[in-house]
Design brief:
The chain is of the alpha+beta class and about 350 residues long. Helices cover about 40% and strands about 25% of the residues. Helix 2 (about 30-40) runs antiparallel to helix 8, helix 3 (about 95-110) crosses helix 4 (about 125-135) and helix 6 (about 170-180) packs across helix 9 (about 275-290).
Length: about 350
């Protein structure tokens, strides 16, 4: 098996098509990575590449970037805090474990001098699968927790049926706040889905974001690029709540993969008492369930308490650290991580023993 290293500009069309047509979803599409590269890695002058094997019909594909962190030479997944999930593209139907392990064996030889790989965030099941493949490839690795992910299985329900299943407290809050908001002069909610209204919607989103509690975007072109990408594939659901001409809350949802992804939300703190964010969530939820007919609504990253009110289930996203034990720095980092791993296991045993005695 030959491993090919390519820049984003030189990727063969077959690999591009595999990224866009894979069942890994929107956040592993070629268009997602292009926006990420253009708005995040290029401004930081990060080196980016795509590794893939020479089985063009069904390749294993791994998008990465290279960094030096605290003297460690690190190969990182092409992700950051904007990325709710990452994956390694392989054809589960046609590739057995040995094929994927062989890819990593070849990758180890193909990589330039490196000390560690940091790949994140995976679905928990995929992080486990990856650990197995790395073991077969003779590459020491450990997994680590990234964040919780709350989501809703719609299960074919209408919005009315879903809303009836929510807690009485949330239903009362939504009903009361929606009624009060509707009585305010100039109050309205818009859901922008088309390119025709995108410029106005993005301006409203930016105005709300700048008036919110959130820190300034470190990569200001990322969100406009993402909204343009989403609208180009008929996936943008940009909700904006207005009082007169002033936008006071905005949320960016993306519909893809039979799922509504809740990507970004903000509200103007000066108008916090109106609970426009809650009203907006309700309207968008109704739209994606009754109009888009999604099967899942996904709150993406984090265990924020309010997400439990709207969602029904929780899963976890995990990362994997891979160590190059042929370098001194790689060995030292591996020893440190394994020490932490076994120390945690020892503490867990001691705590359990103490609990059992009491």
């Amino acid at each position: 098996m030959a491993i090919v290293k390519s820049s984003v500009d030189n990727l063969p069309l077959a690999v591009v098509n595999k990224l866009d047509d894979s069942d890994k979803g929107f956040f592993y599409s070629f268009k997602w990575f292009v926006n990420f590269i253009e708005t995040v890695t290029k401004p930081m002058n990060e080196e980016v590449c795509f590794f893939y094997d020479d089985d063009i019909e069904s390749p294993v594909i791994l998008p990465v970037m290279f960094k030096v962190e605290h003297s460690l030479r690190v190969v990182k997944s092409l992700t950051n805090y904007y990325s709710p999930i990452y994956s390694i593209l392989y054809n589960e139907a046609n590739h057995d474990k040995q094929h994927t392990a062989a890819f990593f064996t070849g990758l180890k030889k193909q990589l330039p001098a490196w000390d560690m790989m940091e790949l994140r965030p995976f679905a928990f099941e995929e992080s486990d699968f990856l650990l197995e493949q790395l073991k077969l490839a003779g590459m020491p690795a450990v997994s680590f927790f990234c964040f919780g992910n709350w989501y809703l299985d719609v299960n074919g329900r209408s919005f009315k049926e879903y809303f009836a299943s929510l807690s009485s407290q949330l239903k009362n809050t939504v009903s009361r706040k929606t009624k009060k908001f509707g009585q305010l002069d100039g109050s309205r909610v818009e859901i922008i889905t088309s390119e025709q209204d995108l410029a106005e919607g993005m301006a409203a989103y930016q105005q709300v974001y700048q008036s919110s509690w959130k820190v300034e975007e470190p990569f200001p072109e990322f969100m406009p690029g993402l909204m343009k990408l989403a609208v180009s594939v008929d996936g943008l659901r940009l909700g904006v709540a207005y009082l007169g001409d002033k936008p006071i809350a905005a949320q960016v949802w993306i519909v893809a993969d039979k799922t509504a992804y809740i990507f970004k939300l903000a509200y103007d703190e000066e108008y916090k008492q109106h609970s426009a964010g809650t009203i907006l969530t309700t309207k968008l939820m109704e739209y994606v369930i009754d109009v888009d007919k999604v099967e899942v609504v996904d709150y993406l990253c984090g265990d924020d308490a309010y997400k439990k009110d709207w969602m029904s289930r929780r899963r976890e996203r995990w990362g994997v650290l891979v160590f190059n034990t042929s370098t001194v720095r790689g060995c030292i980092k591996y020893a440190k991580e394994m020490s932490k791993f076994y120390m945690k296991r020892l503490l867990d045993v001691l705590v359990k023993a103490s609990t059992d005695k009491s």
